[in-house]
Specification:
elongated; antiporter activity (chains A, B); homodimer; Clc chloride channel; 738 residues; mainly alpha; CBS-domain; 27 helices
């Protein structure tokens, strides 16, 4: 069709005359471009539709002032839309952060004077001089609230039971809400968003209900103490917000390809608020989730991510003017010899990733096949029960995972008297007689190491069963926790080695004279990056996220060494990251831009019909009747049909979509006089006049796509796949000598 | 051709039998894939060639251990190559930094005790307690060296003359070296690198001589005090290094498309060392220069950029453990009301960018057309003379531009007693009785403002004449300097306003009670970003570079606001950044991926031959003789010819490249017996046996590309351009009904 003929009349001017019917029905289709659920969109078509719309508007805008305003609004609507998305994403993240932290603390106790404060905020209000980060007099555990102030086995068990009960009730509400109101709100959402951004339609996946329920259930699931994070679901929530706002701007809401630009920006904003890393968010969107990412989208994504971060910082959910709980700043350098343990951590991360991916997939497949999938509520309850039961006794698993990560990342300072920093150290006179946090490990550190080791095993195993349940569940935080624990363990080990053998050849220069040369917190951070890299196989974006978390360029090299090692080790056991694996598990169609294809086939080998099959169904351009076409539509379920000059010569004229054809035939039957079963259908410009005897002909030339993508049957498959990937084709016709 | 037939035999096994000739000649072509100078490469072809090579190697690697090692080496060679490139780029940058700083100071004086030290290093060695950053007793100006220690007009004039003479001699050496040894070493190189990365061949542009001469002349040109920077040329130098190392790895050296992956990584490394911004470098490579940027390249670019930064940090050219002279860290927050002056700075930056681009282009066009272009040495000498003459009297233009930028970015501290920080301030008791650098502007600040204003005008105008001369010349530093001066001026103005009217509604909250609320250094940084954005129209990468320079997330919002405003204001006057404008000026073929095309044409309108022209030259698949083909090659200068079944039916069979065809015919004439002028040429598999009378047929089936890209004549132009852009096509055949 000559696309300039289509005017942008609103949908309302419906059928008036017989020729108009086809025009307007075609417009409808072009204007709304609705796709069926679980179908793939046609990028080329959508993008050229948008170009056409743009052209129309800029032509019109010269006509009147109002049109000029409309044109300007149209040009700015992309920026406006991402501004709104960023603001809303920041707002939602702030609410979720505050809510999750309050509800997490609710499991352990309450602030009786102001029940809406979490433990930390509650303790700020108190005037205790003896405040350490474990307790304060304003904050009461449940047993204390009930008037039991002695610390014995009884109060412990009471607190234990209350903890488990809260966990169970949180997760019950969460899974119940998900089950009844928004089935799509479960999981991390990133595999599905990847699929959606690659051009697939899943109706309702980014809907309003999903948004609300996922936000609420995310808080509940995190508070229930399950081994999951809210970072992945935040990306999903941000995309829901993006989808919501895109409907306010018809330019995006009505064009699936354009809408994906907003969704890319939204996913950047999601990562930005999840980790306080706007640049990392943009790179995540580029590297991990997006499919079509023009530079304009990149710039908007950046803007969106920054606005979201700015709003979240204004909300200041953690009271530390940083966007995430586990933001750190180190002041100590790292030494060259430390690359060895860092690479070891990378190996650990890769192995853990491979282990996790394998068993999680096995478990998910088992859930899908067995009868277990029928009892999601029971499953969630059991996992919550086991998690709460095992987590409470260990102080490192009892607390919120992001607090754990914060604790592990933090360097031991002179005033830190937690177990992790309990060194048998001399009191240094140059530190105002405070403890010098470097020395032989005290009993506290030894205890902490054992507890951390148990926490490592617990988290590592529980996450396998948790990810994939019917609650919102992100992977980032548990993976990072596992890596951070491993890192802290190795880091403390290296530190003790360096303390005890400062003159060993490896430590020679850096640690000579008993100088402090190892920062266990940095090892935790490197380990976290390695484990996350092993599970997701992210690379650049992960390093940048970590860089933004530490706020120092100097730690990029250790992190990168670990992440690269982790990716290579992980790839040795299986190429797929967990998200891609889940995409395949769920059977979504996804053409991975990263995979290398090693086909030696040519197009002729894989095209349909195969050699020897019955010949391809084709439509002749001027020789078929309405009835014949209808039969054809009923008999075959191809998405479209090539139109040829005649069956004998098989010269390709164009391509007609199944949807368009059946729609047009229906409309014609209903409204166009004289169209009967044996009316001829013409796909040519030249239609024989009404002089002919016989029923009135039906002209469908406009419907014909005269420029289908064609390749010859000798084209190598790699080129074909490249075409599909880069141009976002839906179909491609294979020709042999025309 | 069925590509599997081609084996990767080395070039040596040349012609043995008559059939082998064509095979081996074809291999040669496929193996080396040489393109002519000033030609465009064929991405699709090169990439599928690499895939084929990869397949061969992985097939072979199963055969023997040696092949396995070779295969592993091949797989790792990309990483190895970027490792070398990064290391070399860091090394070169370090040398250039040290050399330029030494030679710059040489204009003013010398360190007699250790002439190889620059001023700063020289003064470190001195024990002066009265050291300020202007002078120290170890460092002697030339007049002091000659024994004149009184400060009067005579010594001033002596220093002045020596300054000008040094400048002239530096620039003379630079332009002379460029003219005689490496004509491509002039300019910034970024426009050409953009063109090369988009798939154009410019032989020698990235050669060894260019590398050496550009590095040396870069130092000389910077030291001559010309209004130019070494940051752009550093990108060119890094690309030369990339080109050099790619020849060590045949995988990259012999495949132009693959080589561009290394070049993309190299350009990231170049920016990384120029600004100490590895992430910014990768984004620069992605946003500004690269054309084909798969994710694997991104990861390698990141690695390369990091290695380069790491090496440069180890060299530590500035002695401050930072990669660039003008690295800063602010500790003061910014306030919301300041967005207004920041946006003003954005407007300034956009206007300056538009002004600069317009006049620089006019001047370059004038240079090209007029006779002035014939005297490049004289031009450089005159500009140097004028620059030196005008720059010496003003302390802000006399010094190296990057030191100026550093000075402007820096915040006034209590111990800073330079002019810029000369406030009439009370001595604050809480600052150990040091000066509180906030108060009414003293005479020093007022002086400095005037001098900076003059420097702004001088730099703004001189850069127009400098950029485009026959010396290595980058734009980043002078543009940033102009912006930084403007920013500092506005910043100081706002600061004085806030000091004098602290209760004004705008300042109300932030500056109440005479509190310090404005950081002029931050304004300088925002201004620098805005001006650079206006000139180059970079966006994300610029913000990220600035972010890495300041090391703080909190200043991203001001910088982004300014850069966005600057881009929009600049775009209102002309869409092109300076690099794109220079690409057009030099007439390089460059298909900009960012431009939006507004064609309403379809392929039929622009294809060749146009309607009404003589018919397209085609080759019949089995009906032409050698002579006919030779005539055809002589008469027409198309790059290739479509092969059809016969002239009557015009059914497309394939496409043959002019180069291949003429090569094959020559070879056949020379070596294949029985090929005479009227031998028939067959592009089909089935060749009539030698039973026929007449000369021996020539089989060229293997040469035929049986899968040319085809589109129909009704395809909209946008889709065609998309195809060319995204797939990197060289040609595309337009078909009408086959």
């Amino acid at each position: 069709m000559s696309q300039d003929d289509i005017s942008l009349q609103p949908f309302l001017n419906s059928c008036e005359s017989s020729t108009n019917i086809l025009d307007s029905s075609e417009e409808t289709m072009l204007e709304f471009g609705q796709y069926d659920d679980f179908h793939t969109i046609d990028w080329v078509r959508d993008i050229s539709r948008d170009r056409l719309r743009h052209k129309q508007i800029s032509r019109k805008s010269k006509e009147s002032c109002w049109d000029l305003i409309k044109g300007t609004h149209d040009a700015w609507s992309g920026w406006l839309c991402v501004l709104f998305v960023g603001m809303a994403a920041g707002l939602f993240a702030g609410i979720v952060d505050i809510g999750a932290s309050w509800m997490s603390d609710l499991k352990e106790g309450i602030c009786p004077e102001a029940f809406w404060l979490n433990k930390e905020q509650c303790c700020w209000g108190s005037n205790d001089t003896t405040f350490d980060d474990r307790s304060c007099s304003q904050w009461l555990t449940w047993s204390q609230l009930f008037g039991i102030h002695s610390e014995n086995a009884g109060t412990y068990i009471l607190d234990y039971i209350i903890y488990v009960l809260w966990a169970l009730s949180f997760s019950m509400i969460a899974v119940f809400l998900v089950r009844t109101l928004a089935p799509y709100a479960c999981g991390s959402g990133i595999p599905e968003i990847k699929t959606i951004l690659s051009g697939f339609i899943i109706r309702g996946y980014l809907g309003k209900w999903t948004l609300i329920i996922k936000s609420v259930c995310m808080m509940l699931a995190v508070s229930a103490g399950l081994s999951l994070g809210k970072e992945g679901p935040l990306v999903h929530v941000a995309c829901c917000i993006g989808n919501f706002f895109s409907y306010l701007f018809p330019k995006y809401g009505r064009n699936e390809a354009k809408k994906r630009e907003i969704l890319s920006a939204a996913s950047a904003a999601g990562v930005s608020v999840a980790f306080g890393a706007p640049i990392g968010g943009v790179l995540f969107s580029l590297e991990e989730v997006s499919y079509y990412f023009p530079l304009k989208t990149m710039w908007r994504s950046f803007f969106c991510a920054l606005v979201a971060a700015f709003i979240l910082r204004s909300i200041n959910p953690f009271g530390n003017s940083h966007l995430v709980k586990f933001y750190v700043e180190y002041n100590t350098p790292w030494f060259f010899f430390e690359l060895l343990p860092f690479i070891l951590l990378g190996v650990f991360g890769g192995l853990y990733g491979a282990f996790f991916n394998k068993f999680n997939l096995k478990w998910c497949r088992f859930r899908k096949k067995s009868r277990m999938g029928l009892f999601p509520i029971a499953e969630v309850m059991i996992v919550t029960f086991v998690t709460a039961l095992l987590a409470f006794p260990n102080p490192y698993t009892r607390e919120n995972t992001s607090i754990l990560i914060q604790r592990l990342f933090k360097d031991c300072g002179p005033v830190d008297d937690s177990d992790l920093c309990d060194y048998n150290a001399t009191y240094a006179p140059n530190l105002n007689n405070r403890r010098n946090p470097y020395g032989e490990a005290g009993t506290g550190v030894q205890n902490a190491m054992w507890q951390l080791f148990l926490a490592l095993i617990l988290k590592g195993i529980l996450t396998i069963f948790t990810f994939g349940m019917k609650v919102p569940a992100g992977l980032f935080i548990p993976s990072m926790a596992v890596g951070a624990i491993a890192g802290r363990l190795i880091g403390t080990g290296v530190e003790q080695l360096a303390y005890n053998f400062p003159d060993w050849i490896l430590f020679d220069e850096a640690c000579a004279g008993g100088q402090r040369c190892v920062t266990p917190g940095l090892y935790a951070m490197v380990g976290a990056a390695a484990a996350l890299g092993g599970v997701t196989r992210m690379t650049v974006s992960l390093v940048v996220i970590m860089f933004e978390l530490t706020g120092g360029l100097q730690y990029i090299i250790p992190i990168m060494a670990a992440v690269m090692t982790s990716k290579w080790v992980g790839d040795a056991f299986g190429k797929e990251g967990i998200y891609d694996a889940h995409i395949h598990l769920n059977g979504y169609p996804f053409l991975d831009a990263k995979e290398e294809f090693k086909h030696t086939t040519i197009a002729a080998d894989i095209m349909r019909p195969r050699r020897g099959d019955p010949p391809l169904v084709v439509i002749e351009q001027d020789n078929m009747t309405v009835e014949e076409l209808e039969t054809l539509l009923q008999e075959d379920d191809y998405n479209g049909f090539p139109v040829v000059v005649s069956k004998e010569t098989q010269l390709l004229v164009g391509f007609v979509l199944r949807r368009d054809l059946s729609h047009a035939l229906d409309e014609a039957r209903k409204a166009q006089d004289g169209v009967v079963s044996n009316s001829r259908v013409y796909f040519t410009t030249h239609v024989p006049g009404p002089l002919d005897v016989g029923p009135k002909p039906l002209k469908l030339k406009k419907m014909l796509d005269q420029s289908p993508f064609t390749i010859t049957d000798q084209t190598p498959m790699e080129v074909v796949i490249d075409m599909f990937r880069k141009l976002g084709l839906r179909q491609c016709l294979v020709t042999h000598k025309g």
